[in-house]
Automatic annotation (TrEMBL), chain A:
Residue ranges of the region described as Disordered: 1-40
Keywords from the named record: Cell membrane, Membrane, Secreted, Signal, Transmembrane, Transmembrane helix, Transport
Membrane topology, as annotated: Multi-pass membrane protein
Gene3D superfamilies recorded: Immunoglobulins (2.60.40.10), MetI-like (1.10.3720.10)
Protein's name according to its UniProt entry: ABC transporter permease subunit
Compartments, as annotated in UniProt: Cell membrane; Secreted
Pfam family, one: SdrD_B
Family of the protein in this entry: Belongs to the binding-protein-dependent transport system permease family.
Primary location group: membrane
Domain ABC transmembrane type-1: 105-463
Lineage: Bacteria, Bacillati, Actinomycetota, Actinomycetes, Streptosporangiales
Listed transmembrane segments: 49-68, 109-129, 141-162, 342-363, 384-405, 441-460
Automatic annotation (TrEMBL), chain B:
Family membership noted in the UniProt record: Belongs to the bacterial solute-binding protein 1 family.
Organism for this UniProt entry: Nocardiopsis suaedae
Acidic residues bias (residue ranges): 424-433
Region (Disordered): 414-433
InterPro entries tied to this protein: Bact_solute-bd_prot1, SBP
Highest taxon of source: Bacteria
Keyword Cell membrane: no
Protein keywords: Transport
Name assigned to this protein: ABC transporter substrate-binding protein
Coiled coil feature spans: none
A UniProt-annotated Pfam family: SBP_bac_1
Length: 470, 433
C-alpha cells in the first residue's frame, strides 16, 4: 500500500525551492508539446513493446497481489457464508444493522478522531523540546525505541501494564503507591464481623450493637475474615477480658476463627489470637466520644474512670480501610482510551522523528526575525514554527490515520475477553467474522468497507506526492 | 464461481499426490509387516501441541505400523475453525480433522465439507459408543464424527491446604458449597473462588453444570436444540443459583472487577501459584496449568465432583470429534482405528487422555485421578451430556465478545437481574439459530 511515508524534508525542501507558483522545467511526460513526442519516441526511445516487457513483472506482481485480491473480495462480499448463493448487497445491509459492527464502527471513529491528533501533538512536543536539550539524540532514541517492538509484543506489554492487580499492573502500582502514601490502608482490611455476634458495620469501622456501661459485662468484639498469615507478628493469643472494676469498661477484639476449624463462635477459644493496635472508642448517647484507647497484643482493651451511663463501643475505621484497588483500565469504559495510550507509546517516536526532521529544515532566519521583532517563544512556536511545519504535520497526521483505520493487533491482544465486544474495531470484527464465525461473505464486505474508508486518505496522500513532484 | 477452478486444482493436487504415492510404493519398502495401505499418505489436523501432540503421534504410529500408511500431523493452532475455514474454501482440507465443537461439525456438514463415516469406521462407532455419542456426531441421521478425546468438565479444583486451614471438607451439594464451605473459607480469611471471567467459555461451563443438575438432561437437550426459549423459568432458576456465588464479590479473588478480567490459566495460578483463592472450577485439563503453577496434582492440587444442585450431580463432557474431510484412500480406515478400544487404550496409558468409548476399561488409565474421572463418566451412563456451548451455533456459544460468552460475562459483572440476562441470551440465540 502507499502509506510508506516520504521523508518530509524532501517535500518541504522542494516546496521552498521552487514554490507552487514556479512552473519549473516541463517534465518529459504528458506535459511536453504533442508535436515532438511521437517522432522522438519513434526515433530515439525504446519501442513500446519493450516498455511493456519491462513493466510486466511489476504489473503481474501488482495484479496478483493487489488488484486480484481486491476484486475477489468485492466479488466474494456479494455471496453468502459458504459461497454458494448470490445475495447481492445483503451482507452490507446486515453489516450496518448488526449491533457488534456498530460498536466497532463507533470505536473506529473514536480512534480516527483521537489517536492521530494525540500522537501528532505528542510528536510535535517531543520534537520541539528535544531541539533545546543536550543529549537530544539519546532522548530521541529512547522515545523511538518502541517502534522497534512488534505490535503484538507491545500489546502483551500493555496488557500487563494495565492489569488490575497492583502487584502485577504497572499503571495501578503507580497509582496505588501514591494513594497509599496519601491515605494508607488499615491493618485489617479483610475483617468482617462474626455473624450473629452483635457486631455491625458502622462508617467503615464496626460497632457493638449492645451498649455497655462501666462496671458491667465486658465487651466482646469477634471479627473474622483475616487470614492467619496476615496477622501482625505481635499478635498474641486472645485473652478473655478481665472483670470490669467500678468506672471501667473492658473488652477484647479478636480473630474469632480457630485455625483448622472448631472452636465456639463468639467465644474466646485457646488457639484464637487477639487483634493488636485496633483503635477503640467509647461513644455516649449524644454521639460524643467519651474516651479512646488501643487494643493490647492479646486484643484486650480497657477504659478507666468512665462516668456512669450507657456507651457504644466503636472500632476505628482507619484500621479497616481497604487498600485502594486502582483504576479498572480494562473495564468496558476505559478500555479504548487505555489502548490508545499504548498506541501513543508505540507511535510517538515515529511522529517525533519525522517532525524533528521537518523542524531542522525550517529556515532559521524566519525564527530569528520573529524573535528580533519581539515575539515571545510561544508566539514564535504558534505563529512561525507550526505554520512552517504544517506540510510535515499533515503527512504524519494522514499516515497515522491510515494506520489507525486498520488497527488490529493492539486491540486484539490488550482487551481481555470480557471487554473484547466493547473494544471492538472494524479490522478485528472483520477477522472475527471471516475466520471465527466462518462467514467470509460478510468478512469480505467488512474488508471492502474498510478499504472504502481508507481511500480518501490515500487519495489525499497521492495528490500531495504529485504536487510535490511536479 | 471459481469453485470449479478450486475443485479442479484440488483434484490436480490429489492426482499429483497419487502419482507420487504410486511412484514411491514399489521402491519404498514401507512397513515391516506390509500393510494394505502401503505408500498412502494421510493428513490429520488437530489443535494439540507439546506433550498432547507427542502422545497423539504415538497413537497414530500404531496405525502406520499396522497398515504401512504414512500419517502426517498438522497442528491447527488454538482456533481450529479459523485454520480449517480457508483450507475448505481452497479445496485442500486435511483428510481427518479433530473438531473441538459439534457446532462446527454441523456447519461443515451443511457446507458438504465432510464425508460420512462408512465401513469399519461406522461399525466401530456403533460398537464402542453409546447412542448419545453417535447422535452427537450425526447430522440428519448421517454419522460424521467420533468423540475421540473427552474432557471432563464437572470437577472443582481446590487447594487442600486452604481447606485444612479452614477445617472444611469438599462439599457434596451446591448448598453445602455455598452455605458452609465458601462462608467458612471466607471467615478463615481465604477467598473461596478464583473466577476465569475473561475466558467466556469457563462461564458457559458453570451454567451448563448448574443447569444440567437443576433442570435435568431432558431439558438440557431441549435448550441446546433451542426447542425451549432461554427465557424459560428453568434458565432463570439456574442463573439465580449461580448468582449465589457470582453475586458475592467477596467470594471471588480480586472482587468482581478482578474476576471479569482474569483469563483461564491465570485463575488457576491464583489458586495454586499465588494462593489467593481456595477453589477454581474448570475441567480436568486444569491439571496441566496447576502443575505449571507449581502444585503436585493429587497432593497439593485436588479436585471434587461438581456438587449436585438438583437430584444428581452433573457430568458435562467436552472434547474433540474426529471427522473425515476427504474421500482419499485410508481415511475411513484411520478413523476406524482411532475409534477402536485398542488405540484409545494405548492413549490412556500414555496419560492426559480421557475416553468416551465404553469399551475402554478404567484400569487402562495411567493414574488414579483419570481412572476416577472415567468411572464417573461410565456411572452417569446415559445422563452424561456434551458441553452445550459447543453444540449450539458457534456465533452464539463459542465466539469472543458474542452470545453466551458476552452475556454471561455481563452477568458476572452484575448478577442483579437474572430475567433480563435470560432475555439477552434469548435475543442472542434468536440471531444465531
Amino acid at each position: 500500500m502507499a502509506h510508506t511515508p516520504q521523508p518530509p524534508d524532501a517535500g518541504g525542501g522542494a516546496t521552498t525551492e521552487h514554490g507552487p507558483a514556479d512552473p519549473g522545467p516541463p517534465g518529459p511526460g504528458e506535459n511536453a508539446p504533442e508535436g515532438h513526442e511521437p517522432g522522438r519516441a519513434g526515433a530515439l526511445g525504446p519501442p513500446s513493446w519493450m516498455a511493456l516487457a519491462f513493466l510486466l513483472p511489476a504489473l503481474l506482481f501488482l495484479g496478483a497481489y493487489m488488484l486480484y485480491p481486491i476484486g475477489f473480495s468485492v466479488y466474494r462480499s456479494l455471496w453468502d457464508a459458504p459461497g454458494t448463493t448470490f445475495v447481492g448487497l445483503d451482507n452490507y445491509v446486515r453489516m450496518f444493522t448488526n449491533p457488534p459492527t456498530f460498536v466497532a464502527l463507533r470505536n473506529n471513529v473514536v480512534w480516527v478522531v483521537v489517536a492521530p491528533v494525540v500522537v501528532t501533538v505528542a510528536g510535535l512536543v517531543f520534537a520541539v523540546l528535544t531541539e533545546r536539550i543536550r543529549w537530544a539524540t539519546a532522548f530521541k532514541l529512547v522515545v523511538f525505541m518502541p517502534m522497534a517492538v512488534s505490535f503484538l509484543a507491545s500489546g502483551v506489554i500493555f496488557r500487563l501494564v494495565y492489569e488490575q492487580d497492583p502487584e502485577r499492573g504497572l499503571a495501578n502500582a503507580v497509582i496505588t503507591t501514591v494513594q497509599d502514601t496519601v491515605a494508607p490502608a488499615g491493618d485489617f482490611p479483610d475483617a468482617s464481623p462474626r455473624e450473629g455476634s452483635g457486631v455491625e458495620p458502622a462508617d467503615g469501622g464496626y460497632r457493638l450493637a449492645a451498649q455497655v456501661s462501666p462496671g458491667g459485662e465486658p465487651a466482646l468484639v469477634p471479627l473474622v475474615g483475616i487470614a492467619a498469615d496476615d496477622l501482625p507478628a505481635s499478635a498474641e493469643p486472645a485473652a478473655e477480658p478481665g472483670a470490669a472494676a467500678d468506672g471501667a469498661v473492658t473488652g477484647t477484639v479478636w480473630l474469632d476463627f480457630t485455625p483448622g476449624g472448631g472452636g465456639a463462635e463468639g467465644a474466646v477459644d485457646p488457639e484464637e489470637r487477639g487483634l493488636p493496635g485496633v483503635g477503640v472508642r467509647l461513644v455516649d448517647d449524644g454521639g460524643a466520644t467519651a474516651a479512646t484507647t488501643e487494643t493490647a497484643d492479646d486484643g484486650t482493651f480497657s477504659f478507666e474512670g468512665v462516668a456512669d451511663g450507657a456507651y457504644t463501643v466503636e472500632l476505628d475505621p482507619r484500621d479497616f480501610t481497604e487498600p485502594y484497588g486502582g483504576v479498572t483500565w480494562l473495564g468496558p469504559t476505559l478500555v479504548t482510551p487505555a489502548i490508545i495510550g499504548a498506541y501513543l507509546w508505540v507511535w510517538a517516536g515515529f511522529a517525533m522523528v519525522l517532525i524533528a526532521a521537518g523542524l531542522s529544515a525550517i529556515p532559521r532566519d524566519a525564527l530569528e526575525a520573529a524573535r528580533v521583532d519581539g515575539a515571545t517563544e510561544w508566539q514564535v512556536f504558534r505563529r512561525v514554527t507550526v505554520p512552517l511545519l504544517s506540510p510535515v504535520l499533515m503527512v504524519v497526521f494522514v499516515t497515522l490515520m491510515i494506520y489507525v483505520l486498520k488497527i488490529f493487533d493492539l486491540v486484539f491482544v490488550i482487551a481481555p475477553g470480557s471487554v473484547q465486544a466493547d473494544a471492538n474495531v472494524l479490522a478485528v470484527e472483520m477477522w472475527r467474522v471471516a475466520f471465527g464465525a466462518n462467514d467470509q461473505g460478510m468478512g469480505s464486505a467488512l474488508a471492502v468497507f474498510l478499504l472504502v474508508l481508507v481511500v480518501p486518505a490515500m487519495v489525499f496522500q497521492i495528490r500531495r506526492f504529485r504536487r510535490e513532484n511536479s | 464461481m471459481t469453485e470449479h477452478a478450486w475443485r479442479l486444482r484440488g483434484a490436480a493436487v490429489a492426482a499429483a499426490g497419487a502419482l507420487l504415492a504410486a511412484g514411491c510404493a514399489p521402491g519404498g519398502g514401507g512397513a515391516p509387516n506390509g500393510g494394505d495401505l502401503q505408500g498412502v499418505q494421510l493428513k490429520v489436523a488437530a489443535k494439540w501441541t507439546g506433550v498432547e501432540q507427542d502422545n497423539f503421534v504415538e497413537v497414530l504410529s500404531g496405525f502406520e505400523e499396522q497398515t504401512g500408511a504414512t500419517v502426517e500431523y498438522e497442528p491447527t493452532g488454538e482456533d481450529t475453525g479459523a485454520y480449517l475455514g480457508p483450507k475448505i474454501e481452497a479445496g485442500e482440507p486435511p483428510d481427518v480433522a479433530l473438531l473441538p465443537q459439534p457446532g462446527l461439525l454441523e456447519e461443515y456438514a451443511a457446507q458438504d465439507a465432510l464425508v460420512p463415516l462408512s465401513g469399519d469406521a461406522a461399525a466401530a462407532l456403533e460398537e464402542n459408543y453409546t447412542g448419545y455419542w453417535s447422535d452427537l456426531g450425526s447430522v440428519d441421521g448421517e454419522a460424521y464424527g467420533i468423540l475421540l478425546k473427552a474432557a471432563h468438565k464437572s470437577i472443582i479444583w481446590y487447594r487442600p491446604e486452604a481447606f485444612d486451614a479452614a477445617g472444611v471438607q469438599p462439599p457434596k451439594t451446591w448448598d453445602d458449597m455455598v452455605g458452609t464451605t465458601a462462608s467458612t473459607l471466607s471467615d478463615a480469611g481465604e477467598t473461596p473462588f478464583a473466577m476465569c471471567g475473561a475466558s467466556g467459555w469457563t462461564l458457559t461451563d458453570w451454567f451448563e453444570n448448574v443447569y444440567l443438575s437443576q433442570a435435568g438432561p431432558e431439558k438440557y437437550d431441549r435448550l441446546t436444540a433451542h426447542e425451549i426459549p432461554w427465557t424459560d423459568p428453568s434458565v432463570v432458576d439456574a442463573l439465580e443459583t449461580m448468582a449465589e456465588v457470582w453475586g458475592e464479590g467477596d467470594y471471588m479473588a480480586g472482587g468482581t472487577d478482578g474476576a471479569v478480567q482474569t483469563d483461564f490459566p491465570t485463575c488457576v495460578t491464583q489458586v495454586y501459584g499465588q494462593q489467593e483463592a481456595a477453589m477454581v472450577y474448570e475441567a480436568d485439563f486444569v491439571a496441566a496449568s496447576a502443575a505449571e503453577a507449581g502444585a503436585t496434582v493429587g497432593e497439593t492440587a485436588q479436585a471434587f465432583p461438581f456438587p449436585a444442585v438438583g437430584d444428581a450431580a452433573p457430568v458435562v463432557v467436552g472434547g474433540d470429534i474426529a471427522v473425515a474431510m476427504s474421500e482419499n484412500e485410508g481415511t475411513q480406515e484411520l478413523l476406524a482405528y482411532l475409534a477402536s478400544a485398542e488405540a484409545q487404550t494405548t492413549w490412556a496409558g500414555l496419560g492426559g487422555y480421557l475416553s468416551a468409548n465404553s469399551q475402554v476399561q478404567p484400569d487402562a488409565y495411567a493414574d488414579d485421578f483419570t481412572r476416577q474421572l472415567s468411572q464417573t463418566v461410565l456411572d452417569a451412563g446415559e445422563d452424561v451430556r456434551y458441553d452445550m456451548s459447543d453444540q449450539v451455533p458457534s456465533q452464539f456459544g463459542a465466539t469472543e465478545g458474542r452470545g453466551m460468552w458476552a452475556v454471561l460475562q455481563d452477568f458476572l459483572r452484575d448478577p442483579g437481574d437474572p430475567e433480563a440476562t435470560a432475555q439477552d441470551l434469548e435475543d442472542a440465540a434468536q440471531e444465531a439459530y
